[in-house]
Amino acid sequence: SRVMNDVTDSEHRRLAGAYKEMLATYLQAEDLINIGAYRQGSNPKIDLAVSRIDRILGYVRQDIQENVGFEQ
Prior knowledge:
There is one protein chain. By secondary structure, this protein is mainly alpha-helical. It has a domain at 30-62. Helices cover 64% and strands 0% of the residues. The protein is built from three helices and no strands. The protein has helices spanning 4-7, 10-34, 44-60.
């Protein structure tokens, strides 16, 4: 968002960036994951994204009135 720097602190932006990176990593590997071709342990970044995808999706899908923290 264009106003993110105006309404968040640096830690929030850092965590948001990490979430974006994990989501991008997951989406790049999603086909392999879905067909069972990805093997856990072969890529630490993908492993992390897979382990956190439910939390990431919960965060990005939150309603505008809903407050979902990073720690959730």
